[in-house]
Specification:
The protein is α/β, with parallel strands linked by helices. The chain contains ten helices and ten strands. Bound molecules: adenosine-5'-triphosphate.
Length: 239
């Protein structure tokens, strides 16, 4: 089966009367890892919410292969291959690691493959296998992030949307999370990752979009963006 591309054109979206995104265009081709970076409040989370169907754009088109995202109920999008690891992880703290993984495998096709998928996740994160019976809420921030990514991988997604996976984690744990993202990407999964940690995410992704005040203000290959003086000054602290 040909892998689908994610294509957004002219997306406007917001909350009530407040417009958070202005004519945003974005493309992620199969097998790519793409970053969306930008300051607080730029609209990065809102963009991921549009792609996972949590909010409807007021204008523009969003397609994942043949799937018209805006015309598909959000609960049907996981079956189209879209998996979202939301901001702050949103694990079920009073469920065990394994039970959280079960939640990630709620679509019928994934439920059938639970044993195989959980083996894949436990292989990717051996620590999760050791902790499978531990309540998710009692794990460290880094472990919870791994569990949230593992949960998203349970549905065998064709694109993984990651919202600030490094948020609130100690630098050494941040490095581990990015290493994992790189591994997932190297295994061929398409990844779209939102980050404020611009320097580190540019080392992991192929291309990135810079979002500022709801608009795409720059896009390009990671190496080009990392070398761009304007980007360095605005987002990399001039270093
Ligand atoms: P951050 O890194 O701080 O989360 P962001 O780039 O992800 O920033 P968004 O969370 O998408 O930005 O927010 C974009 C704008 O939309 C902000 O002005 C924010 O206040 C507003 N916003 C976000 N969520 C809501 C909501 N549920 N209701 C109303 N306004 C919202």
């Amino acid at each position: 089966m040909e892998e689908p591309a994610l294509v957004l054109e002219g997306i406007r979206a917001g909350y009530g009367d407040f417009q958070a995104l202005f004519d945003v265009g974005l493309r992620v081709t199969p097998g790519e890892a793409v970053g969306v970076v930008g300051p607080n409040g730029a609209g990065k989370t809102t963009l991921l919410r549009v792609i996972s169907g949590m909010i409807r754009p007021t204008r523009g088109t969003a397609r994942f292969g043949e799937v018209d995202i805006a015309a598909t109920p959000a609960h049907e999008l996981p079956a189209s291959g879209i998996a979202h690891v939301p901001e702050n992880r949103r694990l079920f703290p009073h469920l065990t690691v394994e039970e959280n993984l079960k939640v990630g495998a709620f679509i019928p096709s994934a439920r059938k493959r639970f044993a195989e998928r959980s083996e894949y996740v436990f292989n990717l994160f051996p620590k999760m296998a050791q902790r499978r019976h531990q309540l998710a809420g009692t794990m460290s921030g880094g472990e919870q992030q791994m569990c949230a990514i593992g949960r998203a991988l349970m549905s065998s997604p064709r694109i993984l949307l990651l919202d600030e996976p490094s948020a609130g984690l100690a630098p050494i744990v941040v490095a581990q999370v990015f290493e994992l993202v790189k591994r997932i990407r190297d295994e061929g999964l398409t990844v779209l990752i939102v980050e404020q940690n611009v320097a580190q995410v540019l080392r992991v992704v192929d291309r990135a979009y810079v979002l500022d005040a709801g608009r795409v203000v720059a896009e390009g290959a990671s190496a080009d963006l990392a070398a761009d003086p304007a980007i360095r000054n605005s987002y990399l602290g001039g270093h």
